[in-house]
UniProtKB/TrEMBL annotation:
Keyword Transmembrane on entry: yes
Record has Cell inner membrane as a keyword: no
GO molecular function annotation: aspartic-type endopeptidase activity
UniProt-listed GO biological process terms: signal peptide processing
Organism: Methylocella silvestris
Protein name, entry field: Prepilin peptidase
């Protein structure tokens, strides 16, 4: 059974009853509320509110990608636009300079993902990274500082590998290098987590 089939089965089982649907909704509401509270707790002022909005957007992206292997362009665009507004409001070097650097970071990370997509396609002859992931990476680059971009990507990649191995192990299935994964499920929260690490007042 593939990753997509396995997750579909789990989702169907959870949605087979009204109780299952209510539990799923309650879990998502709880996750969203926890992310909002965390953003407001560790990031001061307006930054925390922007981070809270980012948390909700990335949660929505993760849920949709997990269910459909699709990252809506509208949500990625919203993440990108919110980053520019947040930067314009809080950039210490000034709004114009901050926004310019945010766009530059978005272009760099988006192009890095696009290059990886092209290299993988030429090497394996099939798509490894979807355009949705490329667009989401670009949007995430607008939020993350230069040192945090590779950290967020590594967090997402390690989480994806761990989740895949867990699913395969639970089903006692062999590892399949051609298996598709909804990478946005892991990249979207990693973007928020990267923002939280670089912005939050953790005392280090």
């Amino acid at each position: 059974m593939s990753w997509r089939a396995a997750t579909s089965v789990l989702l169907r089982r959870g949605a087979d009853s009204r109780e299952g649907r209510m539990i799923g909704i309650a879990a998502l509401v709880g996750l969203g509320a926890a992310a909002v509270v965390t953003s407001l707790t560790f990031a001061p002022g307006f930054s925390g509110w922007f981070g809270a909005a980012l948390a909700l957007l990335t949660l929505a992206i993760a849920v949709i990608d997990a269910r459909s292997f699709l990252i809506p362009n509208e949500l990625s665009l919203a993440v990108f636009a919110l980053a520019l507004v947040s930067t314009a409001v809080g950039a210490p070097e000034g709004a114009m300079t901050g926004v310019a650097f945010a766009i530059l970071r978005a272009c760099v990370l988006g192009l890095a993902f696009f290059a990886l997509r092209e290299v993988y396609y030429r090497w394996r002859g099939r798509e490894g990274i979807g355009f949705g992931d490329v667009k989401l990476a670009a949007a995430g680059g607008a939020w993350l500082d230069w040192p945090m971009m590779p950290v967020a990507v590594e967090i997402a990649a390690l989480a994806a590998i761990a989740a895949y191995l867990l699913v395969q192990s639970a089903g006692r299935r062999r590892i399949d290098a051609s298996e598709r994964l909804p990478f946005g499920l892991f990249l979207a929260p990693a973007i928020w987590l990267g923002w939280l690490i670089q912005t939050g007042n953790f005392g280090f």
